[in-house]
Structure formats: structure tokens, C-alpha cells
What does this fold into?
Amino acid sequence: MTSASTRVLVTGGCGFLGGHIVQQLLHDSATSIAIVSRNPKPTFDESRISYHSAEIANKAQIQAIFDKIKPHAVIHTASPHHTEHASLLKRTNINGTRNLLQAAKSCPETWAFIYTSSDSAVLSTQTPLTEDKAQLYTAEHYPNIYSLTKALADASVLEANSTELSTVVLRLPAIYGEHDTNFLPQLVSSIRKQEHKMQVGTNEKLFEFLYVGKAAEAHVLALHALLDGQGLSSVAGEAFFVSDGVPQPFFDFARKCYAAAGSPVKPEEVTSIPLGVMQVMASVGEWLYFIFTFGMKTPALRRDGIDHLNKGCCWSIDKAKKMLGYEPVRDQDEMIAQSMEWAMKSC
It folds into this structure.
């Protein structure tokens, strides 16, 4: 690193991915970490970590934290769940990211900014997509509000790259692993409700998946690449696809998880529900929720979630390997087994 002591600000550092990033940052004894969260819950008994309660959409609160911490780098992982209300998604992902970038640019000590983007921000593809061919959704073309807000934030971080502030975007697919609060709990719930033998659609579209430990590692690699370059790094202003490098149909991956949890599903046991039927059910459910809650609540089954099963993503991770030194998991099945062992005990 370029400094004897490196200060890193992590938004969402109490969350699933953010927590794993913080854990890996602690491996460097010269690094201190400031975690910014709406409701920070101290999870690390470590003097090098400080916790700060703030809404990243509140410009004054964010500026005050930068004035106090003077971070050398920002790792921005915070984002509401894709099912959250549109106003929260816009406020956090668009306005919040803008506030963080402005504060980082105005702080002389801040050199690097790393943003956690998503497969939802990129037009889907079924052939190995490289970053130079990727297309972000725009205000004129997007499938849902979450995709739009992630895409606009992604673009704003890349546009902010300059000699004063080096930026990197990491585009991640579905993440799994220990302390997951979303994906694995849903799979465990399916097993316990005896719903794990069902699938939606024909299960033909390819998807990427990413073990959370490797997702965290990619952020740390990007951090080192930017800080070591002091604004001259070849990775500055770049976006990277990161995954396990094993594209596969969504329900194939899910059934690997079921098998690892001791609930294997034989091909002849699978019950397929047509995609169109689920799309109609989801749309009706959202409409009813809107009517009876005056738009204040949304159902767990959402149309955009069902639509996502008909898109998928298939990426090349060669750029991340070459420029960041990223290496995917050696054995995805081993990581699945390890993750499901945790999930069955904890969810």
C-alpha cells in the first residue's frame, strides 16, 4: 500500500457482502475501517473499526463523516434490496452514490472509489459477454427501477474517474455464502416448505453465481490496484465482471444447493410451472397489494423477479483475472457445500 496506515470507508459494512469485505480488510494490520450504515450493528470486536450512522442520501451527514475520517478509499456496497420501494432505490442508489462521489472528490486524502454494481444493471446475454461489449440500462430503456438505479450509479462512478479520484466498478451476479440474508435463506425455506422440486420455466437461460468470499476478495484486489497506482493505475476508470466462472441454468445451481443440504432432486421429480403463468400470478399479486395497501407495501413474489429468470447472464471474467489478479473458486461444489452447511444451521 502507499500509506503506512490506510483508512477505508465501507458503506453497507454491516451487510452480507460488506461484512465479508471488512473481514478481509482486517487482514492488513495497517488498515483502519469506517463502516457507514443507516443502522450500524457492531459485529466486529476490533479497535481498528469505527461505526457511523448515516443516510448516504443525506449530503450533510456524508460530508461530516468524510471531514472526520478523511478516508484514503471508499468501498461503496450499500444498496436497498431490489424489492424495496422505488423512492428508496432512487434516493440511495442514485442520490447516495452521487453524494459519496462528491464528498470523495472534495476530500484531498481520498484517492480511490470502488462501487459494487450488479448483473441487473447490464443488458442480459447468453454468450460470454466482455466488458467492452456490455450495455448499461438507461433512463430510456430499463426493465425495472432497481436495474435503472444500479445502472445509473454504475455509469456515474465510471464518469467520475479522474486524476484526483480513481474509480472502479465491480459487476456482480447472485452472491451466495455464509451470512447470506437473501438467496440461501430462500433456498432453505423452499426445502422446509417442500417446494424445492418446483421450477419456473424451462430452465434454459444461463446465470452467473459468485461465492461471497471471492466477491470480497475482488474488492480488496481493486482497492490495492488503485491505491498502489496513486491515480496512475491501469485499472482506474474500468468496470469488471466477477463471478465463479461457471455459468449454468438457475435451477441447476439451486438443485446443487438442495443436494448439498441433503435434499437432492431427481430429474423426474421436477415440477415445471410455465413462466407465463408465474408472470401473471406475480402481476396480479402486485396489483392487489397496490390496491389494498395504497402502494405502501409490495409482495414477496414480484413480476421483475420472475422476468429475471428469463434473462440470465453469461460473462467472461478474463479482464478481472488479467488486470486485478482475480481467481475464481477452485471448486464451486465445495463452496456450495460449505455455504449450505452454514445455511441449514443458521436460517
